[in-house]
């Protein structure tokens, strides 16, 4: 059916779709974001090869002054990771044949728990940041 | 003040790549379902409009199309339930268009046939009496036997839209239907097919096939059950091969 294919773009067409499709599309988007972050992370870490001074100056430029936006990005990253992880566990259970009758309810339960855990994580991370222990 | 007419916005396609949208005014009091609206247009406004239909009661599975952006059966979609005076009708996505709302359904049936949707017996030539089944045994697969092959599930499945080789929800649900049938002895043959690279492994459980299924067959659930059976089948095969290799 080559002419009738909607392609990968069809994965992200949320209009008139159910909650299962939302979970599916967001799982893909969050997965892509995590992979992109991983490469960015490797790129930043690779600067260690240039020595401690270079690495520290790079990290400082990322996290202070006009570049504070990286804290917002860190929060968004945690949202993506917690979402992807929780939905991933739900999918593993469902694909093993568990909880199939209540897969939509499972989605809400897993994501709610994940969001609570994420808020706890952000709270403690913020405390560490304020105390200066993480710097 | 609400209008006395529905506006049918129909995607017209000549099957050669030329697409246009035609709008038709259809009196609300003349129709109940979307299919009746299309019939009204065909009989009174434009006789060249091509669309499939037959039973008009959600049994034949012919009048599948995209209505207001969602794959639905035209015969069982009540126009009033769409809560819109504009009814947008287009051919089913993920199928080649032949003309207007008529799509080529052949690939769907090819995929359906690929899972061997019939009773397979090892004693094909030997038994000469009816194969009996208890109501409980029938209940096991009843839900999956309700499929009318309308093809809506394949149109709704995002994986089918990006991978034309994917067997698809209807065929996989049919495979489970026969695997659960107490009279069938061909589940291993089917599990080899559904466990292949174009089978259950491609499903990512978006669940849209079940959302649009007019008969509540729940193909997405069937695929997950089939996937579990497939893993067990594959493990059994693996250990058998290992055992044979040691001999």
Please provide a written account of the structure:
The complex is a heterodimer of chains A (135) and B (247). By secondary structure, chain A is mainly α. Chain A has helices at 19-46, 52-63, 69-95, 103-131. The radius of gyration of chain A is 19 Å and the shape is globular. The termini of chain A are far apart. Chain B is of the alpha+beta class and 247 residues long. Chain B has 2 domains: 5-103, Beta-grasp domain (Ubiquitin-like (UB roll)); 106-246, Fumarate Reductase Iron-sulfur Protein, Chain B, domain 2 (Orthogonal Bundle). In chain B, β6 and β7 form a beta hairpin. In chain B, α6 (169-179) crosses α9. The N and C termini of chain B lie far apart (83 Å). The model of chain B has no long low-confidence stretch (mean pLDDT 94). At the A-B interface, α1 and α3 of A face α5, α8 and α9 of B.
Search tags:
heterodimer; A: 135 residues; mainly alpha; 3 helical TM bundles of succinate and fumarate reductases; 4 helices; 71% helix; B: alpha+beta; Fumarate Reductase Iron-sulfur Protein, Chain B, domain 2; 2 domains; 5-stranded mixed beta sheet; two-stranded antiparallel ribbon; elongated
Give the helix/strand class of chain A. Answer: mainly alpha
Q: Are there runs of chain A of 5+ residues with pLDDT below 50, and where?
A: none
How many E strands of chain A?
A: 0
Order of helices and strands of chain A: HHHH
The biggest chain-chain interface is:
A-B, 30 and 30 residues
Assembly classification:
heterodimer
Number of helices of chain B: 9
The strand line-up of the biggest sheet of chain B is 2-1-5-3-4
Tally of individual helices of chain A: 4
- What about the largest sheet of chain A? none
CATH-defined architecture of the largest domain in chain B: Orthogonal Bundle
Q: Which CATH architecture of chain A is right?
A: Up-down Bundle
Named CATH topology of chain A: 3 helical TM bundles of succinate and fumarate reductases
Number of strands of chain B: 7
Overall number of domains of chain A: 1
Q: What gap, in angstroms, lies between the N and C termini of chain A?
A: 56 Å
């Amino acid at each position: 059916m080559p002419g009738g294919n909607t392609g990968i773009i069809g994965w992200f067409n949320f209009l008139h779709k159910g909650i299962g499709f939302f979970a599916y599309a967001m799982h893909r988007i969050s997965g892509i974001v995590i992979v992109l972050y991983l490469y960015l992370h490797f790129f930043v870490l690779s600067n260690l090869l240039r020595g401690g001074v270079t690495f520290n100056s790079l990290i400082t430029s990322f996290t202070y002054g006009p570049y504070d936006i990286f804290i917002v990005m860190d929060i968004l990253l945690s949202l993506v990771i917690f979402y992807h992880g929780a939905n991933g566990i739900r999918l593993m259970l469902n694909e093993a044949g568990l909880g199939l009758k209540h897969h939509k309810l499972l989605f809400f339960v897993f994501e709610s728990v994940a969001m609570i855990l994420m808020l706890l994580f952000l709270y403690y991370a913020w405390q560490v940041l304020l105390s200066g222990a993480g710097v | 003040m609400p209008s006395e007419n529905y506006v049918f916005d129909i995607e017209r396609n000549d099957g050669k790549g030329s697409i246009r949208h035609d709008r038709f005014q259809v009196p609300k009091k003349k129709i109940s379902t979307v299919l009746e609206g299309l019939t009204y247009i065909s009989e009174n406004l434009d006789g060249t409009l091509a669309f499939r239909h037959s039973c008009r009661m959600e049994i034949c599975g012919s009048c599948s199309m995209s209505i207001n952006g969602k794959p639905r059966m035209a015969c069982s979609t009540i126009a009033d339930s769409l809560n819109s005076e504009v009814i947008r009708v287009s051919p089913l996505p993920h199928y080649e268009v032949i003309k207007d709302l008529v799509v080529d359904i052949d690939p769907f049936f090819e995929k359906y046939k690929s899972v061997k949707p019939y009773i397979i017996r090892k004693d094909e030539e030997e038994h000469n009496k009816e194969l009996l089944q208890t109501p409980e045994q029938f209940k096991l697969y009843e839900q999956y036997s309700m499929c009318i092959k309308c093809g809506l599930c394949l149109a709704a499945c995002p994986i089918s839209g990006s991978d034309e080789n994917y067997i698809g929800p209807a065929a996989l649900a049919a495979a489970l239907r026969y695997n659960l049938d107490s009279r069938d002895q061909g589940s291993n043959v089917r599990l080899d097919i559904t466990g292949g690279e174009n089978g259950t492994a491609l499903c990512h459980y978006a669940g849209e096939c079940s959302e649009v299924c007019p008969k509540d067959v729940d193909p997405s659930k069937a695929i997950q059950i089939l996937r579990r059976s497939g893993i067990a089948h594959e493990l059994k095969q693996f250990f058998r091969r290992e055992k044979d290799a040691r001999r």
